[in-house]
Write a structure and sequence with these properties.
The chain is of the alpha+beta class. The protein has 17 helices and 13 strands. Among the domains are: 174 residues, no CATH class; 86 residues, no CATH class. The structure holds adenosine monophosphate and magnesium ion.
């Protein structure tokens, strides 16, 4: 039996009627080679821990095994608020689905594999820069405990790809339980293909939300699940300072996973109005707009579901979004602050510190990490970050008084040591800072992936100390602040 035959590879998406996709072969890049391979993810899928040329040929498209059946998905979506019917996998292909050792089924998708019928004016390619950024960030968010697609591998090449300048062509192997986006539903709705719309919903329920199949209206149940998952994802982004940058409905996974990484950025200094995408002139996708845009996108999805669900029921479901997001955010931010239980003044305490962080442009990640170390460091490490000593000292006094009320469900008081210990498990020392990503990209473009591997390794355990990589935990130097990121990828 060949190696490929031993894997559990299926093609359930390909069972949809042909209007859902176009079958097409990848166009390999020149002189492909491995840039990275995600050993632990590969192991969980029964793939070799060390990738060889057979795997390279298979994933790069040079020699596709019969177990893969590449296809480009058709979808549409609202881009910056405007409906675009002409979207689809313009540079990506679904190779099939693979079932891991726990029985979970993942799409195997390659991004940067050449033109498809949905490429429009594009070249079907992805550059090494954006491929490295997606690889590092999706794995970093996974390690932080956030919902995200995963990166199985990165293939680099000698093919030049032209953006603002000539760059290196590369491919990402992306894994996720589904690549179905809000825009898939919009496509079938706006083209009036209502039996396809229903079929899509039936399969999303069967594959991803089987728990709603006995709901009075399973389609409404599905929508409620999507709302809940989207709210959880955006609460995670807000609590961890992640700005996605291009929250178009074609970049919204129905599973509420961080998806289609483009000009994203983690906040360095805390700036609620931060716009990471320099192509976003209006600030539509600014950091503090994300919760509202989540609702906008869910409303666009609701509209596409009107043939399946009563409008009033969809509206009622949408009404739950804000509360779900606030609950999830409150849970995450109280955990980051080490506040157990939910007391009346907690939201004020949180609001006050965010106001101080914004007023003084304090590094968001460093602040929380220092606050998590009050058992081993003096409070100067926190107060020393601020210039308004009166404000921070008064906040800290209130905060520590509140912490004294921290109690287990049993009523026993939680010590400062134990609070801080638990806070260090949820407040990362390391995030993917934009300037760090740029440094490893610069080296990788010269053929040296060692800094990339080092950074990827540290980001796998972002809550650990990694004393030898102290520099990665520091806020950016002046040259590394506010780096220009655009949709170009
Ligand atoms: P994105 O902005 O990456 O979410 O992509 C929006 C749409 O443009 C999707 O339909 C993509 O498949 C397509 N697209 C983006 N970049 C390219 C490219 N270089 N070549 C072809 N299609 C692309
Ligand atoms: Mg996209």
């Amino acid at each position: 039996m060949s190696f490929w035959q031993q894997l559990k590879i299926s093609h359930r998406y390909a069972q949809f009627p042909p209007s859902f996709y176009t079958k097409i072969q990848p166009e390999p890049l020149e002189q492909c080679r491995w840039g990275s391979w995600n050993t632990s993810l590969a192991r969980s899928l029964g793939l070799p821990e060390t990738p060889d040329d057979t795997l390279l040929d298979a994933f790069s498209g040079a020699d596709i095994p019969p177990q893969f059946d590449p296809l480009a998905m058709k979808y549409a979506g609202h881009q910056f608020g405007v409906y675009n019917p002409d979207l689809g996998d313009g540079r990506g292909l679904l190779l099939g689905e693979i079932t891991d050792q726990q029985g979970r089924c993942f799409d195997i998708h390659i991004k940067g594999s050449g033109r498809t019928p949905y490429s429009r004016m594009g070249d079907g390619r992805a550059v090494l820069r954006s491929t490295i950024r997606e690889y590092l960030c999706s794995e970093a968010i996974h390690a932080l405990g956030g919902p995200t697609t995963r990166a199985l591998g990165l293939i680099t090449s000698d093919s030049p790809v032209f953006r603002e300048r000539a760059e290196t062509g590369a491919m990402l192997i992306r894994l996720t339980e589904t690549h179905i986006r809000f825009g898939h539903f919009e496509h079938f709705f706006y083209t009036g293909q209502l039996s396809e719309l229903r079929l899509l919903a039936d399969k999303v329920i069967a594959w991803h939300f089987p728990q709603v199949s006995d709901h009075e209206n399973a389609y409404l149940g599905m929508f409620e699940q999507i709302i809940a998952k989207t709210a959880e994802m955006i609460a995670f982004w807000q609590a961890y300072g992640f700005a996605h940058g291009v929250m178009n409905t074609d970049n919204m996974s129905v599973l509420g996973q961080t998806f289609d990484y483009g000009p994203f950025s983690f906040l360095d200094d805390y700036d609620p109005h931060f716009i990471c995408n320099h192509s976003d002139y209006q600030g539509r996708y600014a950091f503090d707009m994300q919760p509202g845009i989540g609702l906008w996108n869910l409303t666009a999805l609701a509209h596409a579901l009107t043939p399946l669900v009563d409008k009033a029921a969809l509206e009622q479901a949408l009404d739950q979004y804000e509360a779900l997001l606030n609950q999830a955010y409150s849970r995450l931010i109280r955990r980051r602050l080490g506040l157990y239980g939910q007391l009346e003044d907690d939201s004020e305490l949180c609001h006050d510190i965010l106001g101080l962080l914004a007023a003084e442009k304090i590094d968001y990640t460093v602040f929380f990490r220092h606050l998590s170390s009050l058992d081993i460091s003096s409070s100067d490490t926190v107060t020393g970050l601020f210039s308004d000593q009166l404000a921070i000292t008064s906040w800290l006094t209130n905060y520590l008084r509140r912490c004294e009320m921290n109690a287990e469900d049993t009523g026993s008081i939680i010590s400062a040591a134990s609070r801080c210990e638990q806070m260090r498990q949820v407040n990362p020392k390391f995030i993917l800072r934009t300037y760090l990503a740029q440094q490893v990209i610069d080296a990788a473009e010269q053929g040296d992936f060692s800094a990339f591997h080092q950074l990827a390794e540290v980001l796998k355990s972002p809550f650990d100390e990694h004393a030898e990589f102290e520099d990665y935990a520091k806020p950016p130097p002046d040259w590394g602040k506010g780096m220009v990121l655009t949709c170009s990828s």
